[in-house]
Amino acid sequence: MKIRVNGEERALDGVATLADLIAVLELAGKRVAIEKNGEIVPRSRHGEECLSDGDELEIVVAVGGG
Amino acid sequence: MSQDQLVIAGKAYASRLLVGTGKYRDFAQTAEALDASGTEIVTVAIRRVNLGQNADEPNLLDFLPKNRYTLLPNTAGCYSADDAVRTLRLARELLDDHRLVKLEVLGDPHTLFPNVRETLKAAEVLVKEGFDVMVYTSDDPIVARELADIGCCAIMPLASLIGSGMGILNPWNLKLIIEEAKVPVLVDAGVGTASDAAIAMELGCDGILMNTAIAAADDPVLMARAMKLAVEAGRAAYRAGRMPKRFYSATPSSPSEGVISARK
Hints:
The complex is a heterodimer.
Chain A: E1 2-5, E2 8-11, H1 18-24, E3 33-36, E4 39-40, E5 56-64
Parallel strand pairs in A: 1-5
Antiparallel strand pairs in A: 1-2, 3-4, 3-5
Chain B: E1 6-8, E2 11-13, E3 17-20, H1 27-37, E4 41-48, E5 70-73, H2 81-94, E6 100-103, H3 116-128, E7 132-137, H4 141-150, E8 154-157, H5 171-180, E9 186-188, H6 194-203, E10 207-210, H7 212-215, H8 220-240
Helix pairs in contact in B: 1-8, 2-3, 3-4, 4-5, 6-8
Organism (chain A): Pseudogulbenkiania subflava DSM 22618
InterPro entries (chain A): Beta-grasp_dom_sf, Mopterin_synth/thiamin_S_b, Thi_S, ThiS/MoaD-like
Protein name (chain A): Sulfur carrier protein ThiS
């Protein structure tokens, strides 16, 4: 399965849900927010949100800025 | 003095200085400067997370005690209404249904001037979605009025270009915006040093948002303190009501009577 994460295409196997992806990306327990195909996926739904080929994800954090 | 609070979206703040968290040496210096500034509202930016590297990278939010600071996520770097709205939806999710946001939609990478058309468009969407929108804009009084009419909770005109430190370039426009505004007006961008902050506050601004003036000073922590004092001094002077200016006409401060006579 190929998905785009933060603008980069990644080939991922054995990743069914968003929670799986978060684990693979070593982001578990980190404070992030995720948008899938233009829609926010609330943290409470990461476990059940299924991923499919061609999905586009944005994963963001808070950084210093004015 | 204790009653003179800044009220934004129904919440009262004792400090009228809002501070950005960008461009400091490290998060420890960020925290120290924020502390010295006395600020209660701090801006943060929303960016893609670094993937695959620096897994143990420190997180800015760990340096900003939640009970001390109200976070103000911004849309810095967004050039369209759509990107700005998506960024703030992500911020709301990231910060647990957080509503207070800073909207800025830029129109040009060189000047970072706001794209007013896109800003108005984004403001309409965000207000409808329940965000409390503090909006960065040009110092055009008509645009400021339209943004307030849309329902933005604070209007934040530039005093000069973002990060330029050029000071208050058009006090007359700021004054026009302040006199008409039904919501707080904060100068956002352009302040370079303490006197700039005092001038903005003496004009009647409700507050000031700054980042580079503090972060790019040789001693950011000391400059943060200077800005705190300047904002307080400028606000006090505004409330005190300055004396009228008398052009080319001096009036002595000491009694004119009883001066000893000149010896012959």
